Amino acid sequence: MVLKHPFVTEKATMMLENESKLQFLVKNDASKQDIKRDLEKSFGKEVTQVRTMMTMKGRKKAIVSFADEKAAEEILSRLGIM
To answer: What share of the chain is helix, strand, coil (3-state, %, to 5)?
Structure first.
């Protein structure tokens, strides 16, 4: 499993509301394909795009878009965050 946990900040919440995208902290050696595979397997939602970046603290963050507009909100509610 390459996913660590959802990355929830004020900016991430605005991205969720405006663009239906989620942010996750992932293992530093995870590829975009690994992240996509894990998300689709864990939550059963089709992932359309994965963007990755390194944070200032040296952790890898993935920004994920889904095919279904409501998928991001549904996933966070399943995890008990929203």
So the answer is: 40, 30, 30
Asked whether 9 and 27 are in contact (CB, 8 A), the reply is no
pTM of the model: 0.90
Select 3-79's CATH number: 3.30.450.70, 3.30.70.330, 3.30.540.10, 3.40.50.2300: 3.30.70.330
Over residues 23-63, the pLDDT tens digits come to 999 999 999 999 999 999 999 999 999 999 999 999 999 99
Q: Comparing C-alpha atoms, which of 20, 45, 12, 29 is closest to residue 4?
A: 29
